[in-house]
Amino acid sequence: MSETAAVTAFNDFKPRILHTAYFVADIDRSLKFYREVLGMKELQQFDLGAGVKEVMLGFPDSKGPGVILMWNTKRTTPYQYGDSYSRIVMMVSDLDAAVRHLRAHGVEFSKAPTEVKGLRYCIIKDPDGYGIEVLQIMR
Q: Is pTM, for the whole model, over 0.70?
């Protein structure tokens, strides 16, 4: 492609979202939550240098990571979170059963199970306070 050729749309590059990544304060606590409560498996760990590390996690039947947890072994101050409404979203086949499982593990809910036009969902918090929407699409 020449310098004068124009790209018509970003979609020409076939974009897709691979995962979400964020920093956590206590990697052991976070790994316990994502592995033992949500059932994710560790796919890979990386040392990015300067004390920064990351671990890639995915569900057993997924084709790649869904979450990357990052931590800084040299950091001594807590992370500051924005005040916007953000979360990751995961889909489940049975919201009621998922809610029972999450409650049995003492998971904090920031929004109780709710039904809205063909879907049901709730929002939970991970150990660092990040929101996770658990969604069931009704058929």
A: yes
